[in-house]
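Subgroup meeting minutes
Present: P.N., E.W., G.H.
Scribe: E.W.

1. P.N. recapped why we're keeping a running log of single-chain structure predictions: easier to compare across weeks, and new members can see raw inputs and outputs side by side.
2. G.H. added today's entry (154 aa).
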Amino acid sequence: MRLTHFTDYALRVLIFLGTRGRADRLSTIGDIAAAYGISENHLMKVVHHVARQGYVETTRGKGGGMRLARAPDTINIGEVVRGAEDDFDLVERFRQDNGRCPIAPACALNRTLMRARDAFFEVLNGQTLADVLESGKAISGLFLSAGKPYEGSG
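Output recorded in log:
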């Protein structure tokens, strides 16, 4: 299974904001793009999505930015991933019409692959953003910002 860049970036945005610490401290798309060395254009859609999902609160205008809308221990990683991805069919036979596989209805491989997918989500469902942020200071020390380590409050 491979997650899309969109999902990866959604998780990165949450991690970045989670390392910021203080709720009154806003971050911008530019801050996050610089920290990860990725495109602001890619992040715009991602930030819009995580805000719509209720994970991020945004403020427009001069001095605006974003911060986590919820405590890290209430943000479930499995929910974030399921909300960002639109296809968890590991193989075409998982599709409603079984794809082009004539043996799919009787094939034991289907059950095995479905169990593997379910195990993947079981692990993700057991993790929150707080769990991922356990090493917050170490993480924020690794962010890039104009070639210098990011100064987070982690």
